[in-house]
Structure formats: C-alpha cells, structure tokens
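Readers of this paper often ask what the protein records in our data store actually look like. Nothing more is needed to write down the fold, since each code stands for a local backbone conformation. Below, we set out a record of this kind in full and without editing:
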Amino acid sequence: MLHGRSRELAHVSRLISDARKGKGGALLLRGQPGTGKTALLDHAAGQAGDALVLRARGVRTESDLPCAGLHLLLHDVLDRHDLLPEPHHSLLHGALRLNGEVRQGEPNPAALGLALRCLLTGLAAQRPVLCLVDDVHQLDTPSVEALSFAARRMKNTSIALLATADAFPPHRLGPELRLSCLDRAAAVSVLGDHAPAAGDAGLERAVALADGNPLALIHQAQALNGVAQPEAHARRVIAELREGVLTLPEPTRMFLTIVGAMGACAPLGPVLAAARLTGLTPADLEPAERAGLVEIAGDSIVFRHPLTRVAAHDQATLAARSAAHRGLAAVLTGPQRLSHLAASAVGPDEDIAAELERCATSAGDHEHAARLSPSRADRSRRLLLAAQAASGSGRLAQASDLAEKAMLHSPEPSRAAAAAAVRGEAEFNLGRPDRAALSFIAASRLIADADPRHAATMLTASLLSALTATDLALAGEAIQLLRELPGHDPAVASALGGMVDIFRGEVARGCHAIMTFFEDPAAYDHPHAAHLLLLIADVDRAHLLARRFVSEREVEGVYAGTPYARWLLAQTLLLSGRHREAMADAREALRVSGDLGHLDGAIDLRLLVGLLAAFTGEPDVTPVVQGEGASQDYHQWALALHDLRQGRNEHALDRLTAIRHPTIAWYCTGDLVEAAVKSGEPERAAPAVARLEEWAAVTRAPWIAAVAARCRGILTSAEEPFLAALRLDGQVAQPYEHARTLLAFGEWLRRQRRRSEARVHLEKACNIFHDLGTLPWAERAERELAATQGPGPRSLLTPQEQQVVRLAAQGATNSDIAGRLGISSRTVAYHLQKAYPKLGVNSRGELAGLPPTDLRHDHPEDSRE
C-alpha cells in the first residue's frame, strides 16, 4: 500500500481513465530519489487492466547511445511493421539500427517523434496503450526528444505516458506532479508496515532520521528489524557484494569489469568478443555464475542484483577499466565504439580526441573530445564546436556553458570572440538580454583591431540586446564602442544611436536619425532594419522585411532560425493590428521551438502568445514565465488587458504606467488612457498622450496621429479630437486602431444621448473587430450597440439606484451615500454595480460625464432622498 500518496494516485488513475475514453495525455512525476516514483509506476502497471503496457528505464551508462531508451520501450512491439507506413517504418527501424544500416548523426527529433506517435496510435487503435518511463532524466537525448514530441500530440488518443525524473528533463513531457516528503502520519504507517514490532521510541527516531523519504523509511524499518544500519544500508550491500567479487579469480573479476562496462543487461556477443581480446574465455565467467552474481538470459548477461555492477566497478583498477573499454571499443561500431573509446582514456589523448571529433554527431561528443585534448588550443576549438552543436540543436543553456568554457581556454582572440558570440546568442534566446549584451561586447573587444567589421556586428547585437533589457548604460557603452571602431559606417552608427536616443526620451533626435538612414534605399537591407522601422512607426515596411526574413530562412533551410524570424513577423503583425495572423505565426514559432527543443529559450514567444490571447479572447494556455525588459513589458500589457476586461482598472493603470520600452509604451497608450479615465485618474495618462503626440508629429505617421487624437478625445470628452482621428484614419489602413476610434466615439455619442449617430459608428466597429478576430472588443461594441436600442437609461434605473447614482456622480463616497440614505455601504456598492451597465459606464469616474437627464427617473413620487 502507498501511504500518503492519495493525490498522486488520483492523478495516475485519472490519466489511465482518460486514455480509455480517448483523452490521452502525459504526466511527469518529479521528486528526490526514494520518494516512491517507481512505486507509482508499479501501481499504474497494476491498474492498466487490458491496456498494453510499454515500459523502459533510463540507464546513465546508456545515455550517450542514441535511441537506447526507445529500444527498451518498444522492444515488445518492434515486429508490428503493419502499423507503420514505409517512411516512418524505415526511419524508426534505422534509428534503432534494426535494419542493419549504420545511421550517421542523431535522427531528426520531429521526424522520429512523428514515427513514434504513428506506432503508438496504431497500437492504441486496438487497445489503450500505457507507456511507463522511469528515470527519464537518464535517457539518451533522441529518445527524450521523440517522447516529448509524441507526448504533446497524445490528445484525442488512447495513449497515456507516465514518466518519472529526479532532475528536470531537457524537454517537456507533460504536466508535472512533484512528490513531496510524507507527513508524519504516513511515515508512521510505512514504518508500521515494515517494522510492526518496533517500539514508540524507535519509531520516533526513525521518523526523524528519514525526514519523510519513503525509501529512507524502509531502510529505517530494516534497521529496526535488525537488518542493517539505517544510514548505510545501500553502502553495506555494495561492500558485501564487493567482498564477494574480490574472492573470485582475477580473470573472472576482469570478465565482470567488461560486463559492467557494457551495461546492466550486456549483450553476450560483444562481451565475449572483447573478453577474447583481453585473453579471457567463457570459462572465466563460470565462477561468477556459480556465485549467483550474474546469469545468462537469452543473448544477454545480466547482473542478478542491481548493485553488483557497482561493486564490480568499484573493485576494478583504473587499468582494468581502461582495458575493458578498449576491448569493447575494438568490437563495437558507431556511437557505442566512440563511447567506449573515450572511456578507455586514462588522461589526455590526442589520437582518441581526434577520432571523437572526426566522428562526432552531438555536442556531447565534441565536449568529450575537448576533455581529452592535450593542448589548450585544441581544447578551446573543440569546446567551441560543442557549443555550436548545442546551439544548433536547441540546447541553449548547454551552449552558453560550453561557450563560456571555450572563451576561458582559448589562447586565440578570434576563437574566444566566436565563443562569446555563441554565448551571447544563447543568452538572448534564453530571455537574458543583459547577459547577452555583455557577451557581445566582450566578443567585439577581442577582435576590434583584427576584424573591425565583425566587431561592428557584435556591437550591434550588443546594442539591441541592451535595449531589449532596457539597460541604457550598457546600450550607451555599445554605441560608443561602435563609433570608436576604425572604418565603421557612420550612417549605421547614427541610426543605431538614434535608437538609444529614443530610449533616453530624445524622441525627435532619435527618429530623425533613423529616418535619415532610410533615405538610402540600401538601408532596407540592413539585418536589423525591421527593428529600426518599428521605432519610426513604419509598421508596413517592417512587416514586409520580417516576411522576407521568414521566407529566406525557410528557403535556406535554416530551421533553427525560424522561431526568431516568425517571432519578429508576429510582432509586426501585432503592432499593425492583425492579431489573428500574429497568433498563427507566434504559435507556429512555438511549435518549431518545441520540435527543436528550444523550450528553454521560448520565453519571448510564450509571452507574445499570452498578449495576443488577451487581444483575441482565446484562453491563454502559456505557462507563467518571467522575462526581462521588452518581454516583461509584453507580459504586463497582457495582464493589463485582462484587468480591463474584469473591471480592475486601477490594476491595469499601474501595469501600463510601469512599461519602460518606448515602442510598447507608445502602442499601448490607448489602453492606458482608458484605464486612467475609468479609474478616475485621467491626469496619470496625460504624459503618455503627450509623448504619443510628439512621436506622431516627428514621424508624420497618420495612424499614430489618429490614435493620439482619439486618446485626447477620451481624456477631454470633446468631440473634435474624435472627428480628427476619423479623418486621419481614412489616410491609412489600420483597421484595428480605426475600430478602436469608432468604438470610443460611439461610446461618447451614446453618453451624449446621440444614439442614432452612435449606432452607425458602433456597428462599423463591431464588424471590424469580428473580421479581425478580436472578440473581446467585438463583445464590448455589441454591448454598447445594444445600449443604444430601446428605452433610455433613466427608465431602467430603480428609484434607489437613481438616488445612489446621483450622489455618486456628485463625488460622494459609498460611506457618505450610506449615511444619507440610511443603508449599508455594501448595499450602495450593490446598487452601483447594477446601475453601471444600465447607464453604459464601467466606473464611478464616468458618472460625472453623463447628461443630467440620464440621472433622473420617471417616478417623481419615488424621488425622495
């Protein structure tokens, strides 16, 4: 019985039950060693019923063998050729080396994951499938990537995946359930099951020592039963097994070292071949078999106790371990040979390092080659190759760490600069733009004299990273270094300096510098032209350049660059008001990031999707993440939009006034103005409107001027700014901002009791919002439109509501109103809540702007105070 795990058992049961109903999914159990993760998998297997159970366990020694985990998981169903169409069949069997071919490099994660899902789906068509994977953090990378790909696509299938991990796996397998320590009652129950005769004092001591860890509790129980000392049960078992191994003949111990080097379940053929090369024969294994340490199971040699392999390894000398791996490397091929060849080295070995580099298929191979490199130059070069390989496969945190090591070891400035650039790119994509900026600056300093052109590229990247982090000091340092470079392009430096000026509040100076830069048509070919265009409100050209950027990446097959390209495209679509298209591109970028394993570096994308969800009204299913600079500002904008929809206007105002990135601040000014007016604090929006008007005047962008005019109309409650905004809207195609102006003007007209005019504008706004897919705004327009129909607000208010509203409009607080009318403050709040929708307002601050006729009712006999 599993004590103290009712919550976990319920989750497991629901996972299996949902799979039976065609609602498949995945669940990752995380916890410290000994918390009972494997026991939960055993429980799930027992609850599987008629479901097909596929089971595997991560083995650390096989983590470098591509697809070893998949081979274990699918071992019993690999003969189901009929379930896989030919492309998937060849790919899966080639990855598992079942077709006799030697595959070069790691398989494509998405293709392998698709083949796995295809096989599992075919199996699930006959009966539910339950995949149980223990210690997923010790699986090889291709297996984890394929499982992750398949896990994200188990919805609407009869497949369930239940996995366990001690540490965080490199790819998301599904929702996580953390296993905590057992409480005291559950701990006592565990001890009661395993040591029923223990006294109270012994139980209390055991509970205290185990600290809620189930495995530790079992060890404590064994100690109470006289089986072992609680603190050293596992160590004692290993020591006893090691003593047993040491009694065996020397050739037998060497044979066990070879078996242990091959794995817990070692294939017989390679082991016998390696043994022969070291002068051993099958007869040398017999003493270990007679002692019950190993047994022959089919075509494998298996250790009968899992700790025997550890004991065999511990007793072996360094020379014996090296000889064992050397023998295995001589009889194996492919990645297995490389793995054992590397393990056979007892120190730096250039021959082995060179072969590892020549045959490397992953960042891990390059890193291992670097560790075996005798010279500092070769070590740094191979670490750089490892960092580049990790970056290309989406393992950004690993890429950053490897690049930092390459920088430290490199005696050559050019190589150190290349490593710094890799680290900068990785840090930026990990959502840490401040660290990225520092890395790019470091790279530029190393090559400023030898390669000033490349140094300029690094400084440009540093500048953009610093501005993304809104670190103006770092941005200033980058632009100063750029201007000091020999042979730098003054026009580019001026435009980039304009970006810094804008962030410092010198809008006119900064925008003029950027607009001057684009007087030269060649400027549109600059790698960061789209970013510059967004700062001068030229969203249409920025969108065209971003679209070209995406197309170039896809045509060139630069798969790893596609997420960033689509993020940039989605950003231009968002800022041009095309939210539905932006959501499609952002989600496509997220999908590609997931297939590449970029989930640790998709913070910007996830926050952008969250913002777009706030505009379109879709459920925001992205996890809560923390970004820096611009990313965090997008997050705050999204939260503010949710606050506005829920009537939390003060919260929305606080979030929007805290946004620091100038572009985002400009584009969200319309929302800030509404939040300020509805909160009764219009003065807090006045500086933002003034900055937007300055930006409009400098850039001469009609649509920005239209937004500024609309904001001025909302602040002043005057008609002329709205009319000016509509005239400007006719000069450009910005349907979203035009609809926002129509809605705001329609709301103003309705409050002025000009309902027929209001209906014309509100109907247009409603249609545009529906066409754009911005449903929250469409619903708001529909509510306003409905309020222009039928009787006026005064006939809808009850006498009590009329009294409360009139006093509130005069500035009385809820307490004042309650005192004057002889009712409670809670009743006052209730009447205001009921009256707002009848009057077409959202807050107390809007009541003062209503015509007096809207605050009277048609029952004078009930108008007493």
